[in-house]
Design brief:
With 123 residues, the protein is mainly α. It has helices at residues 2-25, 29-35, 40-49, 51-81, 85-95. It is rod-shaped and about 90 Å long.
């Protein structure tokens, strides 16, 4: 009986480590537990029962979020290099006060642009 209990504890420790490694790559719970072949219920039970696991999991999720942010930023910079207007606009809106949302033309909220479209038969 002691061998079975010990084997179960070893397997659980390996599963916990596998899940923590998945969180470092993908900090989304559903995806990480699927990749580790575990259930969400098991993950949440471990969070409640094991404070060391909880701390390790939260740290791994934070690492994974940092990894995804770095990866996303690299993709954004790549799109900017390809002259993708949406990427350029997004970057400027979030990294340059002059282009922030609600600032209007050239960073002046009091300036507005009026666009008038004339048809070919109008003067």
């Amino acid at each position: 009986m002691a061998k079975t209990k010990n084997a179960g504890a070893e397997r659980q420790a390996k599963d916990k480590q596998k899940l923590i490694e998945q969180f470092k790559k993908m900090p989304i719970i559903q995806i990480a537990v699927e990749r580790a072949a575990l259930s969400r219920a098991t993950y949440y039970r471990w969070l409640e029962e094991d404070p060391l696991f909880r701390d390790a999991a939260m740290g791994a999720i934070a690492d994974g979020e940092g990894f995804l942010s770095d990866k996303s930023e690299a993709q954004l910079v790549s799109l900017i290099g390809e002259k993708h207007f949406g990427a350029i606009k997004h970057y400027l809106a979030h990294h340059n006060e002059k282009y922030a949302a609600g600032k209007g033309l050239g960073g002046r909220p009091d300036r507005k642009i009026r666009v008038v479209i004339l048809h070919a038969h109008e003067d």
